[in-house]
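Worked example 2:
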Amino acid sequence: MRFAILPVLALAGTFTSVLSAPTPEPLAIERRSTTQASIISSLITTVVPSLSAINATAHTVTPASAPAALAIAEAAAKTEISAVVSAFTASTAQLKALNTKRDTTAITTRQATVPLGVLLGELVADVLAAVDALLNALGLGPASGLLAPLGPALSGLLLALELVVDDLLAAVETLVNDLLTGLAAGLILAK
């Protein structure tokens, strides 16, 4: 009977040692995808008024419009495209700075409220809609000169995201290539 208490003490000692053991700290998860999504979301908020202004300008003229009206539309579109390009350049710089510094603070989730792919899709769709409207309004010749800085700015922005979203970039690249191929085919058929 004296030894009957030993299993109870051993069991109590096990529970005591488990409870007194230090608790592990949560794993540090990078906050990069959330921060990148917020940068892209902020970029969309900045760029949408300019893209809307480009669309509005494009809907006021046609390639057959008077040269004075076309010149006014080109000047207005050039101003808005410059604003879009500078916003892309600023966001690219922010993303590149984010890629160089590592933020590994402990957080509970690593998903953004709106997925980065959805934001990029929205951004690319808005830009392509404005480009299409401008091409339809001004024609290929005048519009191509205006749109020249937009391509490298958008490419730089997408390349700044390369470290995190390689698969997404392949999907966006395919989307943009398909749209540009369709646009090129449409321009060839229109001639």
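Residues 67-100 form the longest helix (34 residues). The two ends are 104 Å apart (CA to CA).
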